[in-house]
Structures are given as structure tokens and as C-alpha cells.
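Dear U.,

For the methods section draft, I wanted the exact inputs and outputs in one place so we can describe them consistently. I've listed the two proteins in the order they'll appear in the manuscript figures. Please don't edit the C-alpha cell lines directly; just add comments below if something needs changing.

First protein:
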Amino acid sequence: MNVIEISNIRLLNQRIENTEFGSPNEVVRWMGAMQAQDYSMAKWAVGIRLIHSTEDAIENALNRGEILRTHVMRPTWHFVSADDIYWLLELTAPKVKSLLRSRHKELELTDAVHDKTAMIIGKAMSKGVCLTGEELSKEFAKADIVTDGNRLYHLLLYAELNGLICSGPVKDKKQTYALLRERVPLRKVYTRDESLAELAKRYFSSHGPATIPDFAWWSGLSVKDAGMALEFVKAYFVSETIDSKKYWFAALSPGVNHRKTTIHLLPAFDEFLISYKDRSASLTMTDNKKIISDNGIFRPAIVINGQVSGLWKCSGKNKNRMIEINYLQPQGKPVKNQTTEAAIKLGAFLGDATQISFKSN
């Protein structure tokens, strides 16, 4: 196995290629968790890993509470399966809260403030009531809790990490929050070692080949805990050392690397890139700043045979939907034709007839 093969194997293990999944929950469970701060792009991240997917199917799964959009692992939004929310929070929330401590001190969000907001949330949202962030802000204001200056985001983030709230159904085109215990009946909570083992098994199955530092970055665990987690499940995997780095992954099927040209329009912040500390298998240092901004924004990428080879963007809607293709290097007609097919797949997901334009190199 070489560095180029790593990226192609990841396409298969992440189910960007040859997926067998028919429901959003299957995808999210397989992946363990999927970064989702860009809501529209995150829906496509699930959709590209589904058979005959539509944006409505992802929305419906979220509205039914089969998958949730909440904060776990690193302090950012993720999609997680409702089946996994409790043990993931139990495992990762303490580390995330410790990372937020200094910021909360700056915002004067004390334990007393968090306790007070928790009481307000519990009272306002009991018996199945789902509220938007704006509606919760008004409830906090009644109790003289200040929510400006990014305080509302952190108040709700902390309530998520404490297992009090999670995403609710969309209401008037706005996302809502729901009480977690009402949204998702309490599931079995694993021991810490069992949770570490489960998370490692999910990650290296769905994201491998990957290293322990990759897993630590993705999960938010310390490198020590990430290594211990892998030890629990390493019997399920094989490893190869390339350029002094040890990669772990499930054993490959014969001939897995002998495939035709593949092209995918991956969303911003897709797991194919963001879930690895070292992204050099798919993204060169030369192109890195074109795909990832200085402040950590991952742009939508065109991936050809596992290599980031361009950017795309989508504008308009319905009959005016336009997908603009911008390759990093000039490409011939066969690649352009296959890119067009990938763009049509995205248009079908969105439910639109899609127009496609190619930006001159």
C-alpha cells in the first residue's frame, strides 16, 4: 500500500464509493459521527454516502430524531445517531467542557448561570415543546440572563454537552432544540473502556487507513486514550507502516485498488478530509490553502481518484441552480464529462435540474 492507495481505500471505507446504505441513520452510525456545522453541506455529506438519496430524506431523519445535530467530540456540531448519543456524550463531553472553560470565564458563564439556564430550559421545553435558539434567548432574557456577544451559543452548547438538549424538528424553516430525554429514550451507557473500544472500532472501520494521531484529532481524545482505545480492538484490524507512520484499517478485499476513474463533489467539511490530522494522502501542501482557509474553513472539493483536484460551488435554486466547477489543473473531456455526472447527482439530491459551468483554468 502506498500513499495514493490510502486515499482510494478511504473512499471505499467511508462509503463515498460502493455504498450499500439505504438510510441516513445507517450512514451516521457507520461513520461514528460526522462534522456538521455547515448544515446544508452536512446533509450532502450523508447523502453522498446513500443509495438514491435526497435532501428531504436527510431532513426527515433529523425531524424524526433518528439522527441528531449536536455537539460531541471536538467543540463543533456533529451528526450522530440517536442510538449513540448517550455514550458519546458520556465519553467526550468532559474533555470538550474543559476546553471551553477559559472562554466561558471570559463570557462570565459561571456554573450558577448554567444551572439557572438549565432550569429555564427544563421548564420551557417540557412535554415535547421544541424551541428555536431565538425563542430560548427570550426565555433567558425574562430571567435577566444576557445572551449577546456569543453567550447564547455557549449556553446552548453547554446544555447539549450536559445531555439536557439536542436538535429538534425544523419549525418554520428554523432549527429547534428539544429535551434529549424526551427526544431519545435513555439507551444503555457503556463503561468508559467499552466506549473507547466502540469509538475506535467505528473510526478505523469507516475512516481507515488512519493513524492514532488521526483518531485522536477526530475524536478529541488524548493521544494516550486514543492509543488505549485502539489496543482494545486492534484484533479487528491490520496495519501497514508508510514513511514511518503506522496506518490501521480493516483487511482489504482482493483487487480493491484496481478500479476505474472516480470523481466526487464532496461537501465543505467532509469527513474525507477533516477527519484526519494528516491529510497529505489526498491533499498536497501546494493546494492546501486553496481548499482550507487560514481560519480553518474547508471548502467544497472535487476529488478525482482520491486526490483533491478542484473546487466547486453551488448557487441559485430550482431552475436557476448552478454548479460551478473550478479544477486546480486543466482537465480533458473525459474528466469533465464524469464531473458533470457527479454534479447531476448533486442536483438530483437537491431536487433541482442543475446547470453546470466550468471555470477556465
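Second protein (the one for the lower panel):
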Amino acid sequence: MRLWQSLERVQGWAGVRSVWREHMGDELQFLQPLLRPMEELAMSVPWPGTIEGRKVVVHDEDDIVAVDPETCESAPLRREDIVLWQLDADTLFRGVAAALGLTGTPSSVGMGNRLWWLGDYVPVEGERFPVYLATTRDAQSLLRSAGHISALSQRPFVLVTPTRAGASEELNRVVEGRSSAWITLAESLTWQGEGVFEPKVSLEQSMATFAGRHIKVAAARSDTPRFATPAGARWSDVRIRFTDAHTVSVSVKTQTGIFDFASMGMGVARTRKPDVQWALLYAFAKGRGALDWRSPEASPKNQKRRERLAEKLQAFFGIAGDPIRIEGNGWATLFRPEAD
């Protein structure tokens, strides 16, 4: 698809129509809605048989010529021939980010507008990885962009390029050295015209190895406390149903799973039994999300236990904010606990 190569080749993403036609061919008609006329006019135009083109000389509105700098030979031009058309990168990259399922609004982060932050990749709630688009095809320039990204990001990142034209061993070392990932738009998206794209493969699939390296997601009855919470989930989306005293069925939006106390980080390793936080969670379930001094499980020690339970639930689900609020003379959960 010519659009991705054009992002790498058209300098400043601006040029006269003949430049865009040279790079886009028949696909130019689909890109046209994303091209905006600039106020300034071209100072030179491409010309057959030349590398640098011909200089534009404007004598009058209706008297415009292209001049050969060596022979001084001139040829007439129309005003539309020297209008510069700039790519609406904001609209284009918003479409790219939406198709990839990223959060945030894309913005340029320098390198002559060739480097963009597309948004954050959020595989599970509470885990965010920045995604950067570098659009140069020159290997050394791309390497500099990767180095700039590495300095900008405190976390492992996802590098996106239009194609793999700028691939090099040095670039691979930078990406792998930060435990990051590299994908291309050509391999990931299909262009539908204007700012509309369809994924060839979901970001979850292409990022499976990357996510697996950085996120330890809890499996049923495992000892790794982390639930695959869908991005954007809130405490009100969480349902924890006890199927017995040691096991719960968990659902958050479309994500579900069966877990025991150990797989939620609430077990005592020495005895292999539930800890006091699990007991408190069970008490909340039996009380339909409420606990006060009238409850059979009421105890002065519950204040510290409640704090630790909130911390463990935040760590397990990755959802910000306290999941248990003060209500009257007791507490109420923002999630829905149930006991069979």
C-alpha cells in the first residue's frame, strides 16, 4: 500500500500535486480528503529528466513559469501546479490509533515532526505502554528516533514504523535492550481511505509476546496475582462470587475466571490456608457488600485488614481508587461480592 511508503518518502508530508501523484499513483484519490492546501506556494517543481526540478518564477497571477537554472529555458505553469498540499497528520494518526485500539490523542514529539506519540497500549487496566510512530525510512535517522524514544520513555515502549525500510541490527539492539516491541503499519493495518483503517491482526495478537513478558496475568488456581482486567474497567464492573469458602468466580465486563485465595494473593504460604484478608472478603460477600459493627465478623482489627484487602484487590485487578468506602458506621464495597 503506497500510503505507508509515502509517509517515509514525502519530505515534510507536503508537496505539489505532482509529487503526491508520483508517490501515491491511483491511490491519491483516497488520500485527497486528507490533503490541505498551504498558504505558501512551491519554489520549485519536479521536472522530467531532472533531479532537482525547475525553479518557479511568478511574474503575475496568470504568468507563472518553470525555469531551467542551467539553460534558462522556461515553460508555463498554472497556479494549481505550484499549490503545496500538506497531509493532515492529526486526522490520519487519530485513525491509526483508533484502529490499533490505543488510548489518548496522538501528538508530535519532535524529530522534525517525524516522531509521534500515537497513544498508550493498555493490555489490561493499570498497565500502560507508550506507542511511538517514527516515519523516516533512513536507517540512521530511524536509529536516532529510537534513541530519542528510549530517552523519553520510562517504560518499555512499542515502536511503530510505516514499513521495515529502516531496519538495522543497531535498531534491533535498541528495541530489545529496552525490552520493547517493533511493529509496522504495513503489517498491521489495511487502509480504507481517508482516515479509516481496519486491523489485519489485533494488537493483542501482535503484542502477545510483549505483554507476556511484562504482565504476569493470574491463571485460575495459580500463584501469580494479576487479573486480565479489560481496559477502562471500574470497580462497579467487578463481580466476585464465592462458590465455596476457598474459591471465587470473578467477572469484569467480558473477562471471567475461577480463582482460589492463593491465586488472588490472599494465602498464607506456611499453612497453605486463606489469610485474614480473604476472610474479610468472604465476610463482605456474606453481607452483600456491607460490613458494620452489627456483623458477626466485626472486629477492631478489621480497619487494618480492610486497608490490606483494598491494596490486594487493587494489585489483582489493576483498578485505581479504593474499592471499599466508608458508609455510616461501617464499610461498603464498590464492587459486587456474593456468596452462594
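Candidate sentences for the figure legend, describing the second protein: The chain has eleven helices and 23 strands. The longest strand covers residues 115-124.

Thanks,
Y.
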